[in-house]
Structure formats: C-alpha cells, structure tokens
Amino acid sequence: MSSSPIGIFDSGIGGLSVLRAVRALLPGERLIYVGDQGHVPYGPRPLAEVQAFSVAITRFLLGQGAKMIVVACNAASAAALHHLRETFPDVPFVGMEPAVKPAAEQTHSGVVGVLATPATFQGALYASVVERFAHGVTVLQDVCPGLVGQIEQGNLSGPETRQILEKALRPMLAQGADTVVMGCTHYPFVIPLIEEIGGGRLRVIDPAPAVARQVKRVLEARGIQAGGNQKAGVQYYTSGPLDSFDSLLFNLLAENDHAHSLNWHDGQVYALSSANSA
Ligand code: DGL
C-alpha cells in the first residue's frame, strides 16, 4: 500500500482523457497531472526534443513524490518511453501505444484508421504495433493537422475541427474503414463529432480504459496501490496560462479546480506560485 500520488503528464489537456479513466477505475489514488501547454503541440517536434521534455517532467513528478508515472501522451511515449525506463530504472511507467491490436481484432471490413500526430507515426513503437498486430489488415493513417490546437482551444465541434476530421475520415470511410483508433490522447474529446461524421459506420477505439487497467495491474504487482476507495484529490499543473487550463478542465471533465503554474528554466521544470485563486 502507498498513499503517494501517481504522476500523469501530456503536452496539454489530452492526458485528461487518461486521467478520467484512471480516476473512474481507481478513485482512491491521489493524482498529479502536468499539462506542458507551454510547449503544446509535441506532435510536430523532433523526437529528441520531446524526449528531453519528458525526462524533465518526470523528474518534476518524482520530486513531488510520484510512485508511478503515466505517460498520457502518445507522442511522448513514442519519443521517450524506452529512454525513461532506462533513465529511471526503479520507477514504474505506463505509456500509450496506438491501439492497433484491438482495432485489428474488431474490424469486420479489414480496414482500420489511426489518427495520431507525426511524432507517434515516426516512433519505433508505432511501427512495431503495426508489424505485430496488423496482419492482413489495411491500416490507414492521418495526422489531423491542427486538431490538437483546436482541442486545446476548447473547440470540440466548431467548423475548423469538423473540417480537419472530415478531411481525415472521409478517405478512410471511402476505403472501407469501419474502425478508427484514437492515437492521440487529445482526440477522445472529439469522439461525438467523429461518430457523427462516421454516420454510424465507425467503431471508435479510445485506449484510456485499457491504460487505466494496466495502471491498476502495475500498482498491484508492486504492492503500491492506495489503501482505500475514498475519492482522492488531483493536483493540476500547467506550463501555460492558468485561466485557460481551468476553463478547459471545467469544459472537458466538469471539474471546478485551479491549476498550479509550472515554469521552464534551463531545460528543467519548476512549480511556481500556488494555484490561481486557491
Ligand atoms: N496528446 C498527445 C498525444 O497523445 C500529444 C499531442 C501533441 O501535443 O501533439 O500524442
């Protein structure tokens, strides 16, 4: 048993889709969430840069007493998961990998789509899941340019967001795709729009519940799960503007809370003042 928190991070608010699933499954676990909104989006950045951000944020979370790190970002997992495990060998990590396996198992048409960012498609992790699990299945990809930015602005269903998704999904549907994988943790927040564009023909796979189950397995295997099932608190940090994080938190999770500020200095990340108005 351990009352220490679980650290969760993403480039921005995308990892909240994972946090939501972890909280639903493990309400008694204290969580610390870092959204690196000062650097969002990670997807178009070189893998080495995303790796350096991921190491610094992990150091910060460990400094806050985290007993485990959830890399709730496909881009950061692609760029850094392997390196993080090597750099912090005693720390349990759970990362994201594009859910090609369940998609390949569930498709009837034999055509699946993956929506992710460029960093995820470039990483070795993606190549390896396609090679291992997509036998006989056609995997179509799209990087949805600008979608992370729209979601970061809270635009979940406006014309710009719709246009990006239609451009990605129409060709997939035309080629017979019946299943689409959320390969970026921001994208589950636009599932209603994806389903609408799919017109009932698309099964959408959000890996967050499976990631939460993996978190539970790892905690239990190490004997470091929290004691009770009483709802434990979450501490939110962002390296971007506090107000916009707080309002997204409310819009996306119906959560009325205040984030704390993070500052980057010399490649390291530090907590600044206390929360906005806590
Ligand atoms: N939410 C992230 C992911 O899962 C990163 C999006 C981005 O910053 O480009 O890939």
Using only CA atoms, what is the Rg?
18 Å
Q: What is the average per-residue confidence, as pLDDT, rounded to a whole number?
A: 95
Largest sheet: 7 strands, mixed
Helix- and strand-based class? alpha/beta
What would the principal axes of the Cα set say about the shape? globular
> What fraction, in percent, of the residue positions are helical?
40-55%
Write down the secondary-structure element order.
EHEHEHEHEHHEHHEHEHEHEE
Q: Care to count the β-strands?
A: 11
Bound small molecules, by name, code or SMILES, are:
D-glutamic acid
The CATH topology of the largest domain turns out to be Rossmann fold
User: N-to-C terminal Cα separation, in Å?
Assistant: 30 Å
Q: Which parts are unreliable, with pLDDT below 50 for 5 consecutive residues or more? A: none
Structurally, the number of domains stands at: 2
Query: At CATH's second level, what is the architecture of the largest domain?
Result: 3-Layer(aba) Sandwich
Please report the first level of CATH classification, the CATH class of the largest domain: Alpha Beta
